[in-house]
Structures are given as structure tokens and as C-alpha cells.
Amino acid sequence: MADGWNTDTGEAVYRSQDVVKNLKIKVRIERVTSTAALSQHFQQQVLSQQEGGDIELKTLSSPAQKGDNEDEVVVGWQEKIFSQYEMELFQTEAVCQTPLDRQYHKEVKALIKAKSRRSRRIFTYTDHDRYTNCLPLHQLEHTDLLTTTKTGPTFLAERMATVKNRRQERRTMDSSIPKTRIINWEPTEEFVRTSRVVNNAMQTMHIMGDLGPPGRLGQKENECLLITIKTDGHGTIVVKPDFNKGREPYRIVAEGENREIWRLTFENVSKSMKPEEKNKEQNMYKDLYVRHKEFLSGLVGQDFEMPPAGTLRYLMNGEIVSAQGFEYDNLYIHFFLELPNNWSSLPSQSLSEVTQTCRTKSLEKEDVAFFSYPFTFEALYMKQKDGEEGIPQWPVIYFKVLSLDFWQRYRTEGYGYLLFPATPGKHTMTCHTWRPVQTGTVSAMKRFFIGGSAELEDDSYVRTPGTFKGDRLSRFGFCTVTTGSVTFNLHCIQQARAFVDAAVLKRRRQKVFEHLGGFSQQGAVCNILGKKKQKIHLTSKPLCTEILEV
């Protein structure tokens, strides 16, 4: 506060569950200088010296009417109160060009006939008035609400002042979006100033004041913006400045030679709800939410779609986050899913995808390409038949990183693979890659000048291929070089009937395949070792018998 005045002229944001049409604001303006203050000062002196003085009160008293030095009115949301200028303007039917002007003409005629004008100095501009769009910028430049620092309108305020008109002018004749140049890669400064503006659907209302001297009301240069109210229709109400709430009034300095000072106070006088009505409304909302929840439950259903017995459904929602550490720019990734034995996928499931081409940016001395490429894989695991041996395998995602330059030359930057996580939940995994190289300088020059490099005929060769049936896989003499790394975000879900049965029976099992019929990797290993031990025992028994017979 400064000298008894409220200097906090910033906007305040409120949230309300009630409809905005119930908003009521009591506005009061009062002149504190000029003839009114001077007459009050002399009146006090005369009253104190009335016994011995010869001063006449008639020469010092102001013959002004009630609305000349003060005015008070209760304003509702989007309630139209005409100014003296509008009262004179809309009296003539010839100046009415729009249906709204003709409606105002009828209302002004009715007010003049009934002599029921509510206010002489306070009036409003509603959201439908022609002045509402351009008024805030104009008035902020010429209105001197007392603030600690003199601030001008910002760039955003200037653009928002005409955003509605500009949007209408840019709209095509058929109200369609232009098909050409949807993205402007080299925007000019003028394009930035006219296009990059946030356009929220806000309804606006301005409460104005006519601060002209008595007898000269209705002049546009004496109009002053007092209060601005905005709402988005979803319960958000923005008021600038904030309600007084018992604090000091706002100070307004009028334009002109006299620089008269006015006092502004306004409060929220909306009718409060009675406790019975408030409880009734809350119960109605609760009932509405319950009905909506029941409706959504009816659409979704109570039972999840369960896989067949002895089947595990594995759903992975993944994201290729980034790739870093590679030699060339403009990277893209080609990846595919390999399903081991006893795994299957839906017929409509695509098992191979390619990302977009992504440029790299320098980040902590590393060239990083951020893909943010989402993908989804769904696979089903069927329980192995009794008598089958082997350890169950998880699906594998094989991927290779490639680069594409300006001349459409592509190069293989690295190979890698990713195993499906054995546990559900979120996993962040970084996979390192390598690529094959050929000895000598010819291969390096070919890669640099014309693109292309040594490639794998089978991408699954980065690990033991699923089709390999031999005892040993030799990579002796195979030359490789370490390249970069690729980061994945994985969100995994596992679903099986055995999980529900285990929850009912309160059995705590740690591995997925244990729920699918008591088969686990550890159990499989023990089963295989037991069978091998039994075979060794059977083959060694005849030999021991022959030795004993000898």
C-alpha cells in the first residue's frame, strides 16, 4: 500500500462450480479532488467559525447532482449498462446497422421512456460489443491506475487484443485448412508476430467509468477502463484488478488538465447458496458421478478377457527413446521381433517396424538422436507338452541402426538386440551395438565416399540365432567395431489364468513359468540333470555287472 491506496492491480484467478451468470459485482467510484473536496474543506471551516464569520455557504457549496461526484451500481455478468455516449448514439435508428444495434435502440428507447437509467458514470461493454476486442490495449495505454512501476502492454497483450479479428480474416472461404505449406520451416519475424499466439475461447466483459466533468459526460476521451472480467466457460474466472475485500480502494487519475483523482472500490456481492441448497447440489453431483461410473462400467464390463488355460499373454508397450555415439547423422532404426518355440502372435500383429529419420544434437559432448518412437508387441506363450525338454526362451527384438545422408547414401551404424524382460513393470534398458568391418582402407573409403558397408545376412547373428542347431557357434576371425548405444523404455504386462488361481490360493511364486504349470527354468535344469544322471546310472550298471562277473 502507498499513501492509503491499493497498488496491487494484477489480475486474480478464481475457480467456481457455479454458473457464471450468477456473478454480481458492486462497483463504486467517488471523486476525491476538484470542486467537491474544496467545498467540503470550506464547509468544515465555516461550520467551525459560524458564530463570528460572515462567509456565505451558498458560494462554496457545489450544486452538483448525486451522480456527478460519486456513482454506485451492481453489475451482473454480461449485463449491458449504457453510457451517455451510447444513449445519445442509439437514439437514432438510422445509425443501427446490425441486429445488436437495433436491439440496443429498443432498449435505449425504453430507458428514456421509463426514466429508469441505473447509472450515469458507470457502464459496461459486453463480449458482443464492437469495442470489446480492441478496448483493453487502448485503455491500458491511457489509464493511470496507481502502480509502483509504470508498465506498458506486452507483446502478447498486443497480439491478443486483435486475435479474434485476425482469426476471422485468415479463415478461408470454405472454412477449410490450407493444404499447402502446413509447416513453415523458415518463419519470418512478421509471421511469428501474427501467428504464434495462444487463442483461448474466453468471454470478456469490461466495466467502464465516465470520468468527465459534470455537464460534459459522453465524450470518448473521458472513458476509463475500471474492471476486466474474463471466463472460459469451465469455471475459471479472471478479474483484473482483484476485489478490494476490505482493503484500501484503487486510485484512478483521469486524463485532462485537472488530473482529477477518483476512488474505485468493488466487491463480489453474488448471492450465497443456502446450506440446504448446497447439500442438495452436492448430493445431485454425487448421484450424477455414480450414474456415470455405472454407465462406464457397463460399457467396459466386469471381467477381463482371459487367455486360455496354460497360456501366458505378454503385452509390451515400448518406446525407442534415443540413440547416441554413432559416427554419422540422420539416423533411423529398423527392428523386428523373433518368437522362439512355443511362442505365437496375433495374425494382424506387425513384427517389423522402421522409425523416422532423426537428426542428432550435441548433449554433454555426445551426439544424441531423440526418436521417441512408440511400438507395441503382443505375444502368447503356450505351455510345453509333457516329455519335451529344453529351457523356455523369451522373445528377442533385433535392431540395426542406419544413417542416411543428403545424397541418399545409407550406412549401417550398428547391430544390437533386446530380450523381453522376465518381470512385468517399467524397464529402461540401454543396448550397446557393434558393426562388422573389413580389413584395409578400401572398405573405409567406400563407406565414406559412396556409402554402404559390410552387413550381416542374418540380423540374428548378433546373438545365438534361434535356428542354430549345432553344438558350438564359432565367430573366430570375425572383425567388429563397437559403435553407439540405443535406449529403450519398456512397459510390460503379463496375463495368465494361473496368476488368478495363485492369488486365490495365496501361493507365492516368483517366476512366470512356475504359474504356467509348475515349469520353471530352474526346474527344467534340474529335470534335465536328473534325466542325464539316470541315463549314466543305467549305462554304467551293465559295465559294473561285467566287472563283477570277471
From TrEMBL:
InterPro entries: C2_B9-type_dom. GO terms for cellular component: cilium. Keywords: Cell projection, Cilium biogenesis/degradation, Cytoplasm, Cytoskeleton. Transmembrane segments: none annotated. It is found in: Cytoplasm, Cytoskeleton, Cilium basal body. GO terms for biological process: cell projection organization. It comes from the Eukaryota. This is MKS transition zone complex subunit 1. It comes from Oryzias latipes (Japanese rice fish).
